[in-house]
Structures are given as structure tokens and as C-alpha cells.
Amino acid sequence: MQKILVARPIFPDVIDRLKHYFDVEWNNGDALPADELTRRLADKDGALTAGDPVGAATLAAAPRLRVVANMAVGYNNFDMAAFNAANVLGTNTPDVLNETTADFGWALMMATARRITESEHFLRAGKWEKWAHDAFLGPDVYGSTLGIVGMGRIGQAIARRAKGFNMRIVYHNRSRVAPEIEAELNAEYRTKEALLREADHVVLVLPYTPENHHTIGAAELALMKPTATLTNIARGGIVDDAALAEALRARRIAAAGLDVFEGEPNVHPALLTVPNVVLTPHIASASEATRRAMANLAADNLIAALGEGPRAGRPPNPINPDVLGKARS
Ligand code: GLV
């Protein structure tokens, strides 16, 4: 039997599925440090990860490894140049999380605009003594302008929900989406700078790449309206968290909602000291059904890539399909 490592706790029934095909080593505990992950992969044919960094040194130390299946749509934890050089397949879990993640983007944007967590903390602290006409005023969502940075599948699902809120939609993306999609979504393309100047609520849903490291920093925050909100459900590192904390402190923008952080699970300490930010621990795809679908899809990819199951040799979500069928190098 081929050997695999499941590097993270996942649903036990998915482990049972994998055991049908493989000799499974399961780390049902904290994320493995890099050297421990490398050590455990040394004799494995495949692995299932969730955000664990995998690069050239790990691949070089694991000569049998042919596939690493990430339980996430984002795969910035994989060094894809190293995967390609070693002929190792990477897979991800797109699509199954689109609607759940779009729901959460909305939840976080609305909580941010309408100051839900800030006012709840006030109430829980026993500070609510009377109704006040000017308590916790925030910007409207209905009828405002939504700026979506990253108009992929999740960005589009967010845009579709904006219809009921009578919003104008501006978007920025590496490339313009097809005219039919722009028309369906009623979304207008803007440069990043124009979008930041125009939007009342900016939502970030773009993949993390070295090119868009700190794509929102002090200069970009300075372009935003002082009444605007910023919501990041994409990846830590896309926003310069220190610059954002400073902009929030100085009220250069009204508020932010963050589900992802640079260096998470650590959070920039300055973000913890400002009241006008809603903070959640990377849970945008966390519905029961969606997390199960992601785990099963990662397992499907692993099973198929290692030549087992009904899709043997045809994993559903190859990131670098060119390596399929090539010998490990
Ligand atoms: C979660 O962050 C994902 O990329 O799926």
C-alpha cells in the first residue's frame, strides 16, 4: 500500500476513506513544524495539507512524494516552482467553498460597517445605560458602492449578493472579466487606485502572490474615503497590517474586518488595541457542509493522483497538470 501523511486534524470519516486506499499516518494535533513535516514526509507517496508550507527542501527530502493535496482554494503555502522542478503535483479545493465564503464576506463587511462586535463588547461590559441617537453610527451598506478586489469565483458570488442591497459595483482584477459577466453582475472595472477612491466598502478576495504582497499599504489606505470600510477574506500579507492598524487608529478609514492576518495565527498587536476592527480566526469557509466538502475534495484529489479510486490518474483539481504522468525528479 502507498503511504500518505494527513498533516492536520480533519474529519475522521475522511481518514477512513483514505485508509481504504492507503497506509495513513495522521497528525491529529497541532500543525507540524517545518522540520517535523519534512521528516514525516521522507517515506510518503502523498500528503494532505491545510496551509502547511511545502518547498524545495521538503520535496528533496521526500523522493517518493508525488502529490500534495491542499485543503484550501489558496495554495500560497506551496512553492509551485519547486513542485514543477520536482514533478510533484499540487492540488487545491476550488468551487466547493465559493458560496459559504461569499456569505462570510458579507457577514464580515456588514459587521464591520454596522459595528456589531464593537457594540456587543460595549453591551457585555455593562456600559449600556440608555438608548442614544448617536451611538455606534456607521456607514450604510444598502445603496452604497461596493469595491471588489479580485473578481474570481468568490468575488463574483459576493457581487451577486449585492443586487438585493441596491449597490453599485466596481471591481479590480488582474484582467477584466468577460463582458457578459460584467453585464450580469452590473460591475464596472476600475484600476486599484480608482476603486479605492470610489468604494464605500472594499472587499479583498484575491489570491496571495509575491506581486501582491502589501497591495494595500499606507499609500492605498490614504486613497480610501474616511467613511469607508476594508474587509480582507483573502490572505494575510495582502494587507500591510501595521499600516492598517495605524490608519484605523487615526480614523483615516472608518473600520476594517479581517479574517486573515500576516503571520497568523499571530495577530499584529496594534490591531488588538483599536476598536474599529472586527477580527475573526480565518473562518470564511467554515460551515459544516463546506469544510466537509473541502476535506473530501482534497481526499478525492489525493486518491486520484496516486492512481486509486474511480478517477485514477485524473485528479479533479490539479494546480500544475503538466507534471501528471511524469517521473519524480
Ligand atoms: C482558505 O483560506 C482557502 O484558501 O480555502
TrEMBL record:
InterPro entries: D-isomer_2-hydroxyacid_DH, D-isomer_2_OHA_DH_cat_dom, D-isomer_DH_CS1, D-isomer_DH_NAD-bd, NAD(P)-bd_dom_sf
Species: Paraburkholderia dinghuensis
The protein's name: D-glycerate dehydrogenase
GO CC list: cytosol
Keywords on record: Oxidoreductase
Matching CDD domains: GDH
Keyword field contains Oxidoreductase: yes
Region Disordered: start-end pairs: 307-329
Domain D-isomer specific 2-hydroxyacid dehydrogenase catalytic: 4-313
Highest taxon of the lineage: Bacteria
Occurrences of domain D-isomer specific 2-hydroxyacid dehydrogenase NAD-binding (ranges): 107-284
Pfam families on file: 2-Hacid_dh, 2-Hacid_dh_C
